[in-house]
Amino acid sequence: xxxxxxxxxxxxxxxxxxxxxxxxxxxxxxxxxxxxxxxxxxxxxxxxxxxxxxxxxxxxxxxxxxxxxxxxxxxxxxxxxxxxxxxxxxxxxxxxxxxxxxxxxxxxxxxxxxxxxxxxxxxxxxxxxxxxxxxxxxxxxxxxxxxxxxxxxxxxxxxxxxxxxxxxxxxxxxxxxxxxxxxxxxxxxxxxxxxxxxxxxxxxxxxxxxxxxxxxxx
Length: 218
Known about the structure:
Blueprint: H1 8-26, E1 31-32, H2 34-41, H3 45-53, E2 59-60, E3 64-66, H4 67-77, E4 84-89, H5 93-101, E5 109-116, E6 125-126, E7 129-133, H6 137-143, E8 146-151, H7 155-168, E9 172-175, E10 188-191, H8 194-217
Parallel strand pairs: 4-5, 4-8, 5-7, 8-9, 9-10
Antiparallel strand pairs: 1-3, 2-3, 6-7
């Protein structure tokens, strides 16, 4: 029997569920229904049930989901029950902010090494992480068992960094540079493009303004 192919949209919703479930757990709430999840997350409850059903039967009809149990299962699905070490290249403002945020992350995905092509930054500390030269990237990836790379360099340098990540054995890349990166098969790249998000937001803001003006004339 062929395995069911899980869509990217489903996988991207799982961290949203997990984040809210963690908030419920901190508030000592033990159970939650798909209806309650849908209302809080502005999602269709049927979609939530369908998303979770891809991975198993986690709820009970008429009762809902046990919060802590569902947290454990989603963490397993997202591989957060295993340690996943991360390397970051680029110690500009964004790179430094991500390194500083690193100390607040409770999940097992942590930035453990940081690199920069600027040799004048070699040896400086960012949240207890020592900035290393790019020449040490490959050895550090192997030594620290790093599997994910983050790119926070200018667009012109991003592809070169991605190539070095791939050559070092990294198979997952989160790219903050405003450029489309190419990679060999077997390497997953996710783009966090602030510029594209802002431009698309501008479109919706125009629509919102137009809607309000139309409402006033009715």
